[in-house]
Amino acid sequence: MSHALTEPQVKELKGLLLARRADLQAQMQRNRANLAPTENTAGSVSQDENARLANQTREIDSVLTDLDLQELARIERALEAMDEGNYGRCEECDCHIPFERLKIEPMTQHCVRCKSLREQQGAR
Ligand SMILES: [Zn+2]
After folding, report:
1. Per-residue confidence at 38, pLDDT binned at 50, 70, 90?
2. Among 22, 39, 58, 68, whose CB has the most other CB atoms within 10 angstroms?
3. Using alpha carbons only, what angle is made at residue 109 by residues 108 and 114, rounded to the nearest 5 degrees?
């Protein structure tokens, strides 16, 4: 049976969430820096080729940024739940999500059972 999280466990998970958020934010900053127009000093790449590459990079980057933003939102939501004291409860069945699962995926909002149920429903 799973039990409510103890305070040290919540603290540990909060550390994981904060570290993850810092990582993501740093990564997004790097992505943004990559988006800055680069001067073609090498001269080996044609203007067209350069523009094409820049476009490609921008497309990939915006997809990545979307994913990052989604993950960031989930992290924020988990941190909020922590503040409200209802972190670690399944949104669906209100059971306690085991600490072992939260350690792997600290921003999850569903227990394993509900998650696999949702995935089955989503597949059909
Ligand atoms: Zn559940």
Report:
1. low
2. 68
3. 105
- Domain boundaries of the chain, sorted by first residue: 7-123
How far is the centre of ligand 1, averaged over its atoms, from the C-alpha of 91 (Å)?
A: 7
Which of 14-23, 33-42, 74-83, 104-113 is predicted with the least confidence, judged by mean pLDDT? 33-42
Question: What top-level class would CATH report for the domain 7-123?
Answer: mainly alpha
Asked if 35 contacts 107 with a C-beta cutoff of 8 angstroms, the reply is no
Taking the centre of ligand 1 as the mean of its atom positions, its distance from the CA of residue 8, in whole angstroms, is 23
pTM for the structure as a whole: 0.73
- What is the Å distance from ligand 1's center to 31 Cα? 36
